[in-house]
Design brief:
The protein is built from four helices and five strands; from the N terminus they run E-E-H-E-H-E-H-E-H. The longest helix has 32 residues. With 141 residues, it is α+β, with helices and mostly antiparallel strands. It is globular, with a radius of gyration of 18 Å. Strands 2-1-3 form a three-stranded antiparallel sheet. The mean pLDDT is 85. A hairpin with a 4-residue loop joins strand 1 and strand 2.
Length: 141
């Protein structure tokens, strides 16, 4: 596994893990990578600097990363709540239902469900606007 610092065309920076460099290249060319802040698919590797720090700097960087992770997690929890309250869950029939809506065979509405990378790419190739969302498990209070 390898982690890359990535950036979208709107200036957001984020980290993402990939099996290897070629996996990143393939997913990027298939437009399967989306900015977790805005959904933009124009993604590029951001400049990365080696991490050389004193213990004080390391502690500061560690706190910054933790704060950023908390902020991203809260954002993704809000996205999940919004999707669940405003869209219909269609499960594994997501690709078929997205096509029915796109081609006017079903009422237009927001839906969510499951699709693998291949299915999502096929939908995008047909001009159907789909976005993968990193779906965090619900936390118990």
């Amino acid at each position: 596994m390898i982690v890359f610092d990535l950036g979208c065309s709107r200036g957001h920076r984020f980290e993402a893990w990939f099996r290897d460099g070629s996996s990143f290249d393939q997913q990027r060319s298939d437009r399967e990578i989306a900015c977790p802040m805005c959904g933009d698919r124009e993604i590029a590797k951001a400049p990365m600097a080696p991490h050389v720090a004193t213990t004080v700097r390391h502690a500061d960087a560690s706190h910054e990363k933790k704060d950023r992770r908390i902020e991203v997690r809260k954002f993704l929890e809000r996205v999940r709540q919004h999707v669940e309250t405003t869209c219909d869950y269609v499960g594994a029939s997501f690709p078929e239902e997205a096509r029915r809506i796109h081609y006017g065979e079903s009422d237009a509405r927001g839906i969510y469900g499951e699709a693998d990378h291949k299915e999502a790419k096929e939908l995008r190739d047909e001009g159907i606007d789909v976005h993968p969302i990193p779906w965090l498990p619900k936390r118990s209070s």
